[in-house]
Write a structure and sequence with these properties.
CATH superfamily of chain B: Molybdopterin biosynthesis MoaE subunit
Distance between the termini of chain B: 38 Å
Oligomer: heterodimer
CATH superfamily of chain A: Beta-grasp domain
Helix content of chain B: 25-40%
Helix content of chain A: 10-25%
Structural class of chain B: alpha+beta
Shape of chain B: globular
Strand order of the largest sheet of chain A: 2-1-4-3
CATH architecture of chain B: Alpha-Beta Complex
CATH architecture of chain A: Roll
Number of domains of chain B: 1
Shape of chain A: globular
Largest sheet of chain A: 4 strands, mixed
């Protein structure tokens, strides 16, 4: 199945893309997707403890299961205001 | 046309239309408590500062995950109403390139008494900094850097309590 990954701010700079399509196995979680990306872009790994994740534009935990067509986002620490 | 109470995007921010929107808003619960019930409106504008951590800032670029930011705004509104029943809130955040002195965020709170309005206004900016998916890209003399603040976790009760303590100090 295929998902879309959105990356923001420094994570986007590290990966060099704001939106990435990925094929992942059935039963995958957000963590599966993250591990795959962090393997491909080693600079992302430093954010494993500090980033947040979202599923279809809602905050979600890393163990949330993902489905075909989902949008997953990885968010570095925020700095609005 | 009235402005929305919650918005995020590249348009320059204006305080007065938001104040009017909040002042004329019914609380949606009791039609007899119309616009006259508020004795206080508190406002906050966040501005782009010309210096940060020893850098001379040239300009900021704000990036947002907009659909999630709007949900975070709604969550903050829910928190405010739970803590201060009947409080009215408007919150706009800007994205894109902002020059020194421009407003990046505008918050308006309205309530019967000033103490609650001030406290809720402070609470909202603290929560914006904790859980709204927005990032500052600072461009300064000699370089640029992404500012990274809080790990966003809306279910982190300790962070929420900290915001409330700061607001009610």
């Amino acid at each position: 199945m295929r998902v879309t990954v959105r990356l923001f701010a420094r994570l986007r700079d590290i990966a060099g893309a704001s939106e990435i399509g990925r094929d992942i196995p059935a039963g995958a979680t957000i963590r599966t997707v993250w591990k795959q990306l962090a393997g491909e872009f080693p600079g992302l790994a430093a954010y494993e403890k500090s980033m947040s994740s979202a599923l279809n534009a809602d905050y979600a935990r890393m163990d949330a299961e993902v489905h075909d067509g989902d949008e997953i986002a990885f968010l570095p620490p925020v700095s609005g205001g | 046309m009235s402005v929305p109470l919650f918005a995020i995007g590249p348009a320059p921010l204006a305080l007065e239309p938001l104040v009017s929107a909040v002042a004329s808003q019914s609380d949606g619960v009791d039609p007899s408590t119309g616009s006259g019930r508020c004795g206080a409106i508190a406002t906050f504008l966040g501005l782009v500062r010309n210096h940060n951590q020893g850098h001379r800032v040239q300009y900021l670029e704000y990036e947002a995950y907009e659909p999630l930011a709007l949900k975070a705004f709604a969550r903050i509104d829910d928190e405010v109403r739970a803590r201060w029943p009947g409080m009215r809130l408007a919150l706009h955040h800007r994205t894109g390139r902002l020059e020194i002195g421009e407003a990046s965020v505008v918050i308006v709170t309205a309530s019967p008494h000033r103490g609650d309005a001030f406290a809720a206004c402070r609470y909202v900016i603290e929560r914006v900094k904790q859980i709204v998916p927005v990032w500052k890209h600072e461009h300064f003399d000699g370089g640029d850097v992404w500012i990274e603040g809080a790990t966003a976790d809306p279910d982190d009760q300790a962070a929420r309590e900290q915001a409330e303590r700061i607001a009610c100090a």
